[in-house]
Amino acid sequence: MVMKKKYGLIALLATVLFVGCKSDDDDTVTEVKPEEVVTLNVDVVLPNDIRKEWQPSIDWALDNLHKAQQRQRCEVKLNLRYHDEDTEDVDKLAYRLTHPEAGDDTCHAIIGPYHSSHATDILRYAGRNRLPVMMPTCTSSELQRSNARNTYAWFLTESDITQCEMMVTGVARMTDVDVALIYSDDTYGQSFRDWFGYYATERQLHMPGEGIASYRSGTNLTLFLDGLAADLKNPRIAVCIALSNAADYIDVTEQVRQWNNKIANGEKKIEVQVILSDTALDDDVIQQDGVWFNYGLTPTASPQYGFPQSYEALSGKTQVNGEARVYDALTLLALGAAHQRVKGDDCTVAGHEVKYYEKPYGPTLTDHIRSVVASTEGATCSWYVEGLARAFSEIGAGRNINLTGASGSLTFDDETHTKVLGTDYMFWRVENTEKGRVAKSILHLSTESSNTQATTQSLWELDKMWSPYYEDVPVTHNLPAVTDRWAVVVSPSTTWSNYRHQADAFAMYQLLRHHGYDDDHIVLIVEDNLANDSRNTFPGQIFVERSSDPAEASDQFVNDDVRKNAVVDYHFSDLQPADLADIMMGRSSSRLPQVIRPTASSDVFFFWSGHGGSREGPLWGNEDAYTYFGKDRIRNIVKEMGGSYRRMMFAIETCFSGHWGDALMGLPDVLVLTAANAQESSKADVHDRDLGVYLSNAFARTFRRQIDAKNDITIYDLYRELFRTTKGSHVSIYNQQQYGSVYSEKMSEFLPK
Percent of the chain beyond pLDDT 70? Predict the structure, then answer.
């Protein structure tokens, strides 16, 4: 009760301040003409309809910034220049803003774009002079991961990784419910595709049928929806929908409505709940007659600091996604410019002097903004006029501030101080009011932010009880002593963007050599086309980890060329799926001279690193190939090998790799470790700025490190470390009942030295 009263007072105060700030006859502050004016040209890249929705908050912020500086010697003015994201060529616009011609007004900062798919173009050019790009709504997890170390890339909302968590958490509050996802087949939908299965597993929710379906405009979802109904475990299903635009929401919700009507007349009674993601908070969706859904979810301003209450009290409606954050973006730009005027080249961020080893060498506006938000020990300053006035005064006197924004506590990552770590979300529904159909907030959720990571994955700490639990199930039959060991290492990827897959394969080859295998007992299948690729800034070399830290550089594989002295047996593009069966079963030929020849006393280790698809796991080729190697094919190979191996271990690093675990269940003396279960994608781990690609996957990286640290680690301890350190997917273990005790059997059986 005390806490509710506190928040109520804050909201009331903020509303009073809101009204005071917007009043034309406000005489609480006597205007004093500043002696100096600093003008910042800010280019705002938004769709026109979003600009119209955001305009009240933009005008409010500009007005408050002006009033807050009336008693300052210098005033920072923001000159906003708008560009329609839907009609402009964003790539050409980004180039023009970052490469001004003679006579052009310099662009000092960019706000936007609204869509993550356009942000890559802008950020690519903004890096030239570290032009700050303030992004209120760009939530693609891949975009944020790949720009995690760029000090000019300002992400003011956590990625859709968190929105997935919020969405599934909301579903988990229901009882007796299954869950499914429909996502748009584009940059926006990718984060939901990658993470939804993970969170459903975390919350122990059943995903019926295929569980997840992609959508492009006009896609017929009938088969997918019917598949859900056929495989339900509970009488209720929550269908979560994450699409890019209003027209698609209208189409998909209509398809779900028709499906609901069909099953309502059937024998099986099913209650359908529909939950929409943040992009559905759009007037075109809300006002559309017949749009059928229960709840929406969107990032919002924290109610603790009064912005949403003030906004709703005056406007009579709920703020749309991004409004509080565009307010914060304008505030940060103005405060950063004030800091730059006072500090100049004397800029420190969290106590460290700002220096760069490439042009521009000294601090720019983005670094001064970083300095402002990095401090937590200065005077407490808030988003409304009086709080902003205090902020400008403290900065003008050369002191630090502790800033709270309109969106909430502005806590940024510890590495760059440009990625916000805490975002509030609200569930909303449509209600009919005197002013028409409006979205009304019904529940706020938030995650506890953390400073332990430089990316938005910081909220995921997997130091928890491992699930599922595995009983000690020793196999009763006796096995012969090991006489020899064989290994097959495969990477089906051939493109530069998939660098990490071949790199992990080369690193696994080196791990095997280091732990006792000779070349005659390893079959290495990689395309081997990366070392001499024109984009390789280290010609002839392949890395899985790079570091300038001497402590890290002493570890195995860090700064090591994993291709060095590697013997490649087959280029992937020279093989067909059937060839792998011949290699595994020892059927050599003039075209396939190198095969493995295990016997009943041989241990066989198999590693695969590549892409996977949602139906059958590992793909035979790159991510656009969509040719599955096949669950039946891999099972038939192992069955045919029966009697010609002692034990066999599979380590599969692909998305949806759990499909192979399922396929190999029941086969004697076979154990399968997968980077993900059958409903999840797996995640890249190490991004390299110089090469512009990911160097390794989390599963393979931990596998290497654990074996190198202690090759006699038990299988269960290895699994536990893989599970704990592989973020974004559930490392899984299969068929241990047919293999033996994972608690006592050790990895030294496969890697003896």
Answer: 90
* 599 alpha carbon, distance to own chain's centre: 45
Q: How far apart are CA 15 and CA 446, in angstroms?
A: 23
Tell me if 419 sits within 8 A of 452, measured CB to CB.
no
Average pLDDT over every residue of 348-361: 85
Q: Which residues pair with residue 619 across a beta bridge? A: 628
Q: Decide if pLDDT at 530 tops 90.
A: yes
Q: Evaluate if residue 417 carries a pLDDT over 80.
A: yes
Q: Regarding beta strands 236-242 and 212-215, do their DSSP bridges make them parallel or antiparallel, or are they unpaired?
A: unpaired
pLDDT digits 0-9 by tens, 537-559 = 999 999 998 876 555 555 667 88
The Cα 465–Cα 463 span in angstroms is 7
Neighbours of 388 (CB within 10 A): 24
* Best CA proximity match to 500, nearest among 721, 701, 725: 701
Please give the backbone phi and psi of residue 431, each rounded to the nearest 5 degrees, phi first: -130, 150
Residues 341-351: tens digit of each pLDDT: 999 999 999 88
The two domains 160-302+442-459 and 484-749 share their CATH topology (first three levels equal): yes
Report the range of poorest mean pLDDT among 29-43, 146-160, 507-521, 720-734.
Answer: 29-43
Residue 632 has pLDDT above 70, yes or no: yes
Burial group, residue 292, by CB count within 10 angstroms (0-12, 13-18, 19+): middle
Q: What is the pLDDT of residues 37-58, one digit of tens each?
A: 999 999 999 999 999 999 999 9
> Which region among 171-180, 427-436, 503-512 has the lowest average model confidence (pLDDT)?
427-436
Neighbouring CB atoms inside 10 A of 98's CB total: 18
HSE toward the beta carbon, residue 223, CA cutoff 13 A = 6
- 510, 562 contact by CB (below 8 A): yes
Q: Are 426 and 463 in contact (CB under 8 A)?
A: no
Helix axes 160-172, 187-202, angle to 10 degrees: 40
What residue ranges do the domains of the chain occupy? 34-159+319-423, 160-302+442-459, 484-749
Neighbours of 110 (CB within 10 A): 28
DSSP letter string, 57-102: HHHHHHHHHHHHTTTSSEEEEEEEEEEETTTS-HHHHHHHHHSPPT
* Structural class in CATH, domain 160-302+442-459: alpha beta
- What sections of 147-186 are H helices per DSSP? 160-172
Distance from C-alpha of 723 to C-alpha of 709, rounded to nearest angstrom: 17
Q: What does each C-alpha distance from 291 to 249, 277, 286, 320 come to in angstroms?
A: 8, 14, 8, 18
Pair of tokens at residue 562: 């994993």
Report d(CA 47, CA 10) in Å as an integer: 33
At the topology level of CATH, where does 484-749 sit? Rossmann fold (3.40.50)
* Burial category of 402 from C-beta neighbours within 10 Å (exposed 0-12, middle 13-18, buried 19 and up): middle
| Per-residue buried b or exposed e for 145-161, using 16+ beta carbons within 10 Å of the residue's own CB | bbbbebbbbbbbbbbbb
CB contact set of 440 (below 8 Å; sequence gap of 6+): 318, 428, 429, 430, 431
Report CA torsion sign: 677, 679, 685, 690.
positive
Count CA atoms within 13 Å of residue 84 on its CB side. Answer: 6
Provide the CATH number for the domain formed by 34-159+319-423 in this structure: 3.40.50.2300
Tokens 């040209």 correspond to what residue? Answer: 41
**Spatial separation of the C-alpha atoms in residues 527 and 505, rounded to whole Å:** 11
How long is the chain? 753
